[in-house]
């Protein structure tokens, strides 16, 4: 059975490869490093593309490549759970309509829901506002063997709060902690310290900034208005936030510069074309997971003897 399964998988991979070639396939290999923000790098988002050459030659080729990535992610998730020494945290940030929900839905479509935890962070609750700005996300970090997904995250506290300083004043901080000249630098330091702590304790963090153009956002907003089934995804608040586009770009630039480190970098994902973004994101996750030193727990002699006794009982 195992031999047959492996042969079937090999045939399937060959079929996918031939189909990709037939349809124009991937124009080039996806290199995670092309999208990584280096530690200390000056970030100017206008110089980072919101669209790149497609990594697939047709819709069919895209689906086949994504299916291959999804299958591999599913296999690695099972290994992550069995190894039980690492946790994986995926952070998705971006402007409204950048494609965060869609990326999570497509890239992680094959992941076992029991091994995955998704959290979406919006306005803090009355309980959350009584704690430090990292509290509400810290208590939702994934445990060992699990994949945690943050749709927005603690980074909102140096993005939305920075663009709207009145929010900061509502957070009940002591006066001496409200030095607006230094508070953002201090928050970056707090975030970096926390992420380093998590990394030292086995949580691998991948941070995605979905980089869309202002024109693409406009088109997606119009689609949400014109498509009745998408009306629920649009609110007047989205247009209000769009008015602060340049302020958000400045906040993102400084945030990416200050919090992209060698161990825990940011990846700037061209998000104007969703299919391309899905393939890039899934490839980065795969590359990161392959670097984890994971294996299935070994079975010792005592355990093998125990299993053989159980097998003998079942065979009678």
Topology readout:
Layout: H1 2-22, H2 59-83, E1 87-94, H3 100-107, E2 116-120, H4 135-138, E3 147-151, H5 160-163, H6 165-169, H7 183-200, E4 203-211, H8 214-226, H9 236-242, H10 245-259, E5 266-270, H11 274-291, H12 301-315
Parallel strand pairs: 1-3, 1-4, 2-3, 4-5
Helix pairs in contact: 1-2, 2-11, 3-11
Say which CATH homologous superfamily is assigned: P-loop containing nucleotide triphosphate hydrolases
- Write the CATH fold name: Rossmann fold
Name the average pLDDT: 90
Radius of gyration in whole Å, from Cα? 22 Å
CA-CA gap between termini: 22 Å
Fraction of residues in H or I helices: 40-55%
Q: How many structural domains in the coordinates?
A: 1
Based on the coordinates given, report the CATH architecture.
Answer: 3-Layer(aba) Sandwich
**Biggest sheet, in brief?**
5 strands, parallel
The outline comes out as globular
**Strand order across the largest sheet:** 2-3-1-4-5
Estimated share of beta-strand residues: 5-15%
What series of H and E elements makes up the topology?
HHEHEHEHHHEHHHEHH
Any idea of the CATH class?
Alpha Beta
Sequence stretches where pLDDT stays below 50 over 5 or more residues: 1-27
Q: What is the total tally of β strands?
A: 5
Helical segment count: 12
Which class of secondary structure composition applies to the elements? alpha/beta
């Amino acid at each position: 059975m195992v031999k047959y399964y492996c042969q079937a998988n090999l045939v399937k991979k060959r079929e996918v490869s031939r189909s990709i070639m037939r349809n124009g396939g991937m124009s080039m290999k996806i290199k995670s490093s092309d999208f990584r923000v280096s530690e200390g790098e000056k970030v100017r988002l206008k110089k980072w593309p919101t669209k790149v050459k497609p990594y697939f030659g047709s819709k069919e080729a895209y689906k086949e490549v994504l299916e291959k990535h999804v299958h591999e992610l599913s296999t690695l998730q099972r290994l992550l759970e069995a190894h039980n020494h690492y946790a994986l945290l995926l952070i998705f940030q971006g402007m409204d309509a950048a494609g965060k929900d869609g990326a999570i839905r497509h890239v992680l479509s094959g992941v076992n829901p029991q091994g995955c935890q998704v959290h979406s962070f919006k306005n803090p609750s009355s309980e959350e506002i009584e704690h430090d700005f990292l509290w509400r996300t810290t208590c939702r970090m994934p445990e060992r063997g699990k994949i945690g997904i943050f749709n927005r995250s603690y980074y909102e506290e140096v993005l939305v709060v920075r663009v709207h300083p009145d929010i900061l004043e509502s957070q009940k901080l002591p006066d001496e902690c409200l030095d607006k000249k230094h508070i953002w630098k201090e928050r970056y330091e707090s975030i970096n310290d926390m992420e380093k702590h998590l990394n030292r304790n086995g949580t691998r963090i991948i941070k995605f900034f979905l980089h869309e153009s202002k024109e693409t956002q406009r088109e997606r907003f119009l689609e949400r208005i014109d498509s009745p089934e998408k009306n629920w995804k649009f609110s007047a608040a989205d247009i209000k936030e769009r008015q602060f586009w340049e302020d958000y770009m400045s906040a993102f630039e400084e945030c990416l510069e200050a919090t992209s480190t060698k161990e825990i970098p940011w990846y700037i994902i061209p998000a104007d074309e969703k299919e391309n973004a899905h393939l890039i994101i899934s490839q980065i996750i795969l590359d990161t997971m392959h670097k984890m030193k994971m294996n299935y727990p070994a079975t010792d002699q005592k355990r093998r003897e125990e299993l053989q006794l159980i097998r003998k009982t079942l065979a009678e």
